[in-house]
């Protein structure tokens, strides 16, 4: 239920002090912005120190709105915990990438989103997501030996120069030497596979992108993408779309996966299919 105009709306705030730009100062600015727009944080959870709110906890507290001010990994965990709940979720940009936030709100600034939320002018959406035996991905899923670049990104984010050098060497080696990954059903892209595949969910389909940092120039481009804190922006091609895909390693069984940036491992050929988010997310109003 949308909040009534001019009335304060209580919410449960989920945040993560370790998420990217989500430091204490940023959290205080966000909380102040909520208060200015008539949104009151009646309860708070600092994940992973605190348990995430469950539907039972929220219903017991009389809360019908959860705001998540954290990175995509924490957002993923919170939405999984809220699956099937009858309330609404407001995803806010409290991490490094904030991919789901941008999917829901485009380039809107935080203050504009909070203002619309306080007025009850946001639209309810249940967007398409990617589902597999490994879990759900709301913003995107990466798979293949190139997922090792995520360790480099984490070292850069933590300003750990030694770890960055070590992980960069390891990422180079794994991207070049580990068995590539291919889409076997439907057969999309080249049969010899790629070091990294990106699955991006949309409401009606899943877009598939192939990354191919295989030459010196492409590795330089990949490092530049890392410098911008997004290794996904390295050299890549759009190779197709489908609502049901099976990925498999060309010459091995296991392969690495990042679900909204969180690591997992597939034990063999794995199905990734389009599904619908199982909780109401607030999004910018449509242009219709």
Automatic annotation (TrEMBL):
<dbReference type="InterPro" id="IPR017438">
    <property type="entry name" value="ATP-NAD_kinase_N"/>
</dbReference>
<dbReference type="GO" id="GO:0016301">
    <property type="term" value="F:kinase activity"/>
</dbReference>
<dbReference type="InterPro" id="IPR001206">
    <property type="entry name" value="Diacylglycerol_kinase_cat_dom"/>
</dbReference>
<dbReference type="InterPro" id="IPR016064">
    <property type="entry name" value="NAD/diacylglycerol_kinase_sf"/>
</dbReference>
<feature type="domain" description="DAGKc">
    <location>
        <begin position="11"/>
        <end position="115"/>
    </location>
</feature>
<dbReference type="Pfam" id="PF00781">
    <property type="entry name" value="DAGK_cat"/>
</dbReference>
<keyword id="KW-0418">Kinase</keyword>
<keyword id="KW-0808">Transferase</keyword>
<protein>
    <submittedName>
        <fullName>Diacylglycerol kinase family protein</fullName>
    </submittedName>
</protein>
């Amino acid at each position: 239920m949308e909040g009534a105009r001019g009335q304060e709306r209580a919410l449960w705030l989920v945040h993560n002090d370790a998420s990217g730009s989500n430091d204490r100062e940023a959290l205080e600015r966000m909380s102040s912005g909520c208060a200015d727009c008539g949104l009151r944080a009646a309860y708070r959870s600092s994940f992973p120190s605190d348990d995430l709110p469950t539907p039972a906890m929220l219903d017991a507290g009389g809360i019908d709105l959860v705001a998540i001010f954290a990175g995509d990994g924490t957002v993923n965990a919170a939405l999984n915990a809220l699956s099937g709940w009858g309330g609404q979720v407001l995803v806010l940009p409290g991490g490094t990438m904030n991919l789901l936030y941008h999917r829901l709100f485009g380039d809107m600034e935080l203050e504009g989103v909070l203002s619309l939320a306080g007025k009850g002018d946001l639209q309810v959406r249940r967007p398409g997501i990617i589902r597999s035996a490994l879990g759900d991905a709301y913003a995107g899923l990466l798979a293949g030996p190139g997922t090792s670049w995520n360790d480099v990104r984490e070292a850069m984010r933590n300003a750990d120069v030694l770890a960055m050098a070590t992980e960069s060497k390891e990422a180079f080696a794994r991207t070049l030497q580990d068995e590539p990954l291919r889409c076997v059903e439907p057969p999309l892209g080249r049969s010899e596979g790629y070091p990294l595949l990106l699955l991006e969910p949309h409401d009606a389909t899943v877009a598939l992108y192939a990354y191919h940092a295989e030459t010196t120039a492409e590795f330089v481009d990949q490092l530049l993408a890392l410098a911008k804190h997004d290794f996904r922006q390295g050299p890549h091609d759009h190779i197709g779309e489908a609502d049901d895909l099976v990925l498999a390693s060309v010459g091995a069984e296991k392969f690495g996966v990042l679900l909204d940036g969180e690591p997992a491992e597939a034990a063999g050929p794995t199905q990734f299919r389009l599904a619908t988010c199982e909780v109401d997310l607030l999004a910018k109003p449509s242009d219709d």
